[in-house]
Design brief:
The complex is a heterodimer of chains A (about 425) and B (about 300). Helix content of chain A is about 40%, strand content about 15%. By secondary structure, chain A is of the alpha/beta class. In chain B, a hairpin with a 5-residue loop joins strand 1 and strand 2. Chain B starts with 6 loop residues before the first helix and ends in a 12-residue tail after the last helix. The relative contact order of chain B is 0.18. The chains are: A alpha/beta (about 425), B mainly alpha (about 300).
C-alpha cells in the first residue's frame, strides 16, 4: 500500500471540486463545506455518543472485518481496498460530524467461527461504532447473532440470495431479485430467448438464485428451462455438462459458477468450441465481475453477458473519479468489480446516516438510515430502502477481450429491493 | 432424454462424451502420478501435493509473462519451456523440503501428514504474499485453445489432446524410470526393505530425496498443464488434493499400474454419471462406489505382493 501525500492535487473522489475550490477560496470554505464538513465542536461527544461507543472529540473508530487470508481473500481484498479508500476520502473532507474515521481491521481468515469471534472482539472490546465487513453469506450468518446481541451495525457489500433483513445490517449489494429479474427480462425481450439452461456451484446462493430464475422464466416469462445443474464448489471438469448443453441446445446458458470452478468452466467452454461472441448459445452470468475475469482471462469469456449493478466501465462522472482514485491508491493494474463498488458505498452511507441522525448511537443511525440518498455513488444515485437494502439500477454488460464489460442495458428506473419476493419462494 | 435427436447427433455427442471421459482420465493420471510416487513408493502422506502443482502453475505464469514481454515471436512455444522449468522448480523445492523436514519424519507417518499440511498452508500464504490473493490469468498460446472439428458435430478440444499427450509422455517416462533404470531399482529396493537396501550399498537418503524431488517435479508439470483448463491462485491446489488422494488410494498405494487403472475407473464412472445425472449427484455416486469397493478391497485395486 502506498500512502498518498496530503496535498490538494491528489484529493479525489466525490468531493474533488469542493476541496479544490476550498483550497483556492479559503474564505468561502465554511459555506461551501456545509453540510459535508461539520465541526466536531458543534456536536459534543457526550451528546452524539450516549452508548459508550469508541467515539472521541476528534475521532470515531469503525471496524473492517474481511478475510485477508484463506480462500476468500481472493474476493474480499477488493472490498477492503474500497472501504479504505472511502474512509480516506471522507477523512480528507473532514470526517463524520467533524471526527476523523479510524479503523481497526480484523481478519476473518475465510473461517466462519473466526468471523463471529472477531466481530465480538470489535463490538465488545473495541466498541466500534459500525463495521464494514463480511463477504460470503456464511460469514454474515455467523456474525449476525453477535451483531444483534450487542447491537452492532454492519454494512454488508455482497450481492446475495436475499431472504434476510436484520435491523443491524445495511445490505449495500443486491438481493437476488434485483440481480436476476431485469437480466432475464432483457434477454427474453431483446435477444428473443426461449429456452434456458441453469447451471451453478452447489451451495445456497446459486441454488436460491436459480430457484428465483426458474420461477421467473416459467411463470412470468412463459419460457422454458431445459436443465438445471449444480456442481460441487471447486469442481474443475465441466466437459460433461458442456456436452449436455450442446445436446439440449438452449438459447441461454444461465451460469452461476463461482471461485476456482469459474476459471475452469470458461476455459473449457472456450476450448470446446463454444464461441460466446456468436451468442448461440448466449451466456448470461451473475457471478463474474471484472475481478473474476482477471483469473479467467478476457479472451476466454469474451462475448458473455453479466447482470450486475455496477461495471468499472460505467460512464458517469462519479465513476470516473472513483476509478481513478482507486487506481491511484492501489495501483494502475487494479480492476473494480460490482462488490468492490458496493463496499465503497458502506462508509459513505454510514457517514450520511450519522449526520442525518446527528448521533453515532446505533439506534438513531438505524432509524435515520432508510431514505438516505447518495448522489455521489459510482453506480449512480442510490437510496436506502425501509428493508435496509439499496434501491439501485440493474445493468447488463458484455465481456470484452480486455477484461472489461461494455454496458449494453440498464433499467430505466431504480429497482426496488425485495428480499422476500412473493411468488418466487 | 434422447427423443427428437437424429442418430448422427447422438453418436456425435457420445463421441465427445467419450473424449471428455478420456480427458478427465488423463487429468487424474497426471495429478496422481507424482503423489503415487511419493505416497505409494515412499509412504509419505504429502498434503502439500496441490501446492507443488500450483508452484508449477505460477512458474508457467511467470514464463508466459517473460515471453510476452521479451520474446513475443516465440510466445507460441513458451509452454514447453514452462513445463520443464515447472518440473525443475517444484522438484528442487521438493528436494529441499525432503532434506529440511520429511527425512526426519520417516518413522512417524502421521506426523508427516501434519507437517506437510502445515507446509501447504505456508506455501499458500507465500503465494498469496508474492502473487496476490487473486487468481492470475495465464495466457495460453492461441494454437492451444479452441477445438478441432472432426465432423460438423464432433469437436475435440485441443487442450484436452495436449493434456493427454503430456500424460502419456510422463506416465511412460515414470514407468521406464521405475522399472528399467538404476534409480527405479533402488527406489523399489528401499521401499521393500530399507535396512537391507542400505546394507547392500544403496544410499537410501539420496534415493529418498531424489524420489521425493521427482514426485514433486511431476506435480509441477501437472500444475503447469492445468493452467489450460483450471485456475491459478494461491489456494487452487486444494481443488485437486482430494481427488488426487482418492485416485492413489483407490488404485492401491504402492502400484503405478493401480493408479492408472483407478484413474480410469473413477474418471469413466464420473463422466458417464455426470452425463445422465446432475453434477453433484454424479460426484456422490462416484464416491459411494469408491467407498464400496474399498470396503471389499481395503488394499485398493492393485497391491504389491510382499511378505510383510
Amino acid at each position: 500500500m502506498t500512502k498518498r501525500p496530503d496535498t490538494e492535487t491528489v484529493v479525489t473522489g466525490p468531493s474533488r471540486r469542493g476541496v479544490l475550490m476550498g483550497a483556492t477560496a479559503a474564505a468561502m470554505t465554511a459555506s461551501l463545506f456545509t453540510p459535508k464538513s461539520l465541526r466536531a465542536a458543534d456536536f459534543p461527544t457526550a451528546e452524539v455518543n450516549t452508548t459508550g461507543l469508541a467515539v472521541t472529540d476528534d475521532a470515531v473508530t469503525i471496524g473492517i472485518l474481511h478475510s485477508i487470508t484463506g480462500t476468500m481473500s481472493i474476493s474480499e481484498t477488493g472490498s477492503v481496498q474500497a472501504e479504505k479508500l472511502a474512509i480516506e476520502q471522507i477523512n480528507a473532507q473532514g470526517g463524520i460530524l467533524g471526527r476523523k474515521i479510524e479503523y481497526i481491521q480484523e481478519d476473518g481468515a475465510s473461517d466462519w467461527p473466526t468471523f463471529a469471534e472477531k466481530s465480538r472482539k470489535l463490538l465488545v472490546n473495541d466498541k466500534v461504532a459500525s463495521v464494514m465487513g463480511c463477504w460470503t453469506s456464511a460469514s454474515r450468518k455467523a456474525v449476525l447473532p453477535v451483531f444483534e446481541q450487542h447491537n452492532g451495525f454492519l454494512y454488508y457489500p455482497t450481492f446475495y440470495e436475499g431472504l434476510e433483513q436484520s435491523p443491524n445490517v445495511i445490505y449495500t449489494g443486491q438481493e437476488a431479485t434485483q440481480q436476476i429479474i431485469a437480466g432475464l427480462d432483457w434477454v427474453a425481450k431483446e435477444k428473443g430467448a426461449e429456452t434456458f439452461y441453469l447451471l451453478g456451484s452447489d451451495y445456497i446462493w446459486p441454488r436460491t438464485s436459480n430457484k428465483i430464475a426458474r420461477k421467473h422464466i416459467e411463470n412470468f416469462l412463459g419460457k422454458k428451462v431445459l436443465g438445471e445443474e449444480y456442481y460441487p464448489l471447486g469442481h474443475t471438469q465441466f466437459n460433461s455438462v458442456i456436452n449436455k448443453i450442446r445436446l439440449r441446445k438452449p438459447d441461454v446458458i444461465y451460469a452461476i459458477v463461482v471461485g476456482g470452478s469459474n476459471v475452469a468452466f470458461y476455459k473449457q467452454l472456450k476450448a470446446a468450441g463454444i464461441d460466446m461472441t456468436e451468442e448461440s448459445p448466449l451466456l448470461l452470468t451473475i457471478s463474474v465481475t471484472e475481478d473474476e475475469i482477471r483469473g479467467i482471462g478476457g479472451e476466454n469469456i469474451e462475448g458473455a453477458y453479466a447482470c450486475m449493478k455496477y461495471f468499472q466501465s460505467l460512464d458517469n462522472e462519479n465513476n470516473v473519479e472513483f476509478v481513478s482514485a482507486f487506481k491511484e491508491m492501489w495501483g494502475e493494474d487494479m480492476v473494480i468489480g460490482d462488490v468492490t463498488q458496493a463496499a465503497y458505498l458502506g462508509p459513505w452511507l454510514y457517514k450520511a446516516a450519522v449526520e442525518k441522525a446527528g448521533s453515532f448511537d446505533v439506534d438513531k443511525v438505524r432509524e435515520a438510515s432508510p431514505g438516505i440518498e447518495l448522489t455521489t455513488a459510482p453506480e449512480g444515485y442510490v437510496k436506502v430502502h425501509e428493508n435496509h437494502h439499496l434501491w439501485s439500477k440493474t445493468r447488463v454488460g458484455r465481456a470484452q477481450a480486455d477484461g472489461q464489460y461494455e454496458v449494453v442495458f440498464e433499467t430505466a428506473d431504480l429497482v426496488e429491493p425485495d428480499p422476500f419476493p412473493e411468488g418466487y419462494q | 432424454m434422447f427423443d427428437g435427436y437424429t442418430t448422427s447427433e447422438l453418436s456425435a455427442i457420445f463421441a465427445m462424451q467419450g473424449f471428455a471421459g478420456l480427458s478427465l482420465f488423463s487429468v487424474y493420471v497426471l495429478m496422481a502420478l507424482g503423489l503415487a510416487i511419493i505416497f505409494g513408493q515412499m509412504g509419505v502422506i504429502n498434503m502439500a501435493h496441490g501446492e507443488f502443482m500450483i508452484l508449477g502453475a505460477y512458474v508457467t505464469y511467470l514464463v508466459s509473462i517473460f515471453f510476452a514481454e521479451y520474446m513475443p515471436i516465440l510466445f507460441g512455444a513458451y509452454f514447453f519451456l514452462a513445463m520443464i522449468l515447472a518440473f525443475v522448480a517444484s522438484g528442487l523445492l521438493g528436494m529441499a523440503v525432503e532434506w529440511a523436514m520429511i527425512r526426519h519424519l520417516y518413522k512417524r507417518p502421521l506426523d508427516t501428514l501434519l507437517a506437510t499440511w502445515g507446509l501447504s498452508l505456508i506455501l499458500q500464504q507465500i503465494y498469496r504474499s508474492t502473487f496476490g490473493a487473486r487468481e492470475v490469468g495465464v495466457s495460453i498460446p492461441d494454437w492451444m485453445m479452441g477445438s478441432i472439428a472432426l465432423t460438423d458435430l464432433v469437436e475435440i478440444p485441443i487442450n484436452g489432446l495436449f493434456v493427454m499427450a503430456v500424460t502419456l509422455i510422463i506416465a511412460t517416462g515414470v514407468g521406464v524410470m521405475m522399472y528399467r533404470s538404476l534409480w527405479g531399482r533402488q527406489v523399489r529396493a528401499v521401499v521393500q526393505n530399507r535396512t537391507m537396501a542400505g546394507a547392500v550399498g544403496i544410499d537410501t537418503g539420496r534415493t529418498d530425496r531424489l524420489t521425493f524431488g521427482i514426485g514433486c517435479g511431476i506435480a509441477g508439470v501437472a500444475g503447469s498443464a492445468f493452467t489450460m483448463i483450471g485456475s491459478t491462485g494461491p489456494t487452487a491446489g486444494q481443488l485437486y488434493i482430494v481427488d488426487t488422494f482418492l485416485v492413489v488410494v483407490f488404485g492401491g498405494a504402492a502400484s503405478l499400474l493401480g493408479t492408472i487403472a483407478s484413474a480410469f475407473t473413477i474418471s469413466q464412472t464420473q463422466s458417464i454419471l455426470e452425463f445422465f445425472l446432475s453434477g453433484s449427484m454424479a460426484k456422490v455416486l462416484t464416491l459411494l462406489t469408491v467407498v464400496g469397493i474399498l470396503m471389499l478391497r481395503p488394499q485398493g485395486l492393485f497391491s504389491l505382493k510382499l511378505r510383510k
